[in-house]
Amino acid sequence: MTSGVIIALVARGMLAALFAFAAASKLRDRSQTRAQLRAAGISPGFDLTLVVFEAFTAFGIIMERRSAWSVYVAIALLTGFSAFVLYQVLTGNRAPCPCFGSGPASRPTDVWTLVRNLILLAIAVVATGATGIGQWVIWLVAVSGFVLLSVVNGVSARAGR
What we know:
Number of helices: 6
Structural class: mainly alpha
Distance between the termini: 54 Å
Order of helices and strands: HHHHHH
């Protein structure tokens, strides 16, 4: 096994643990999760949808051995989550991010929340196991998606003022 494969497997483990933790945290205190979603401007009924997406993404990352499709799903989720965090920052909504469930560690959404999500996105790109030009293509797609969603969010934020 090469060092690149080992690094990708470690990144996959980290990503699977992250999504499993996020799903479990949201299930642990659904009323608080719903309150955080409401404060962030998201329908509280979306709480179980997030749990299902996160749990199945974690499960797919763990079980899938020959393909990185579940990691690509994680990249799409993290890109969307990051664009949403940017929207929250742009509109000044500092409600705690419902990213990892509720609890005393919940902190207001700010630029550091966005930085954390972009670091997680970098780990997800590594988890694909792609190297060379393949890794750059994945980065390009992820960053392009983030930029596109950010532009849409920026326009929405300005229109909402």
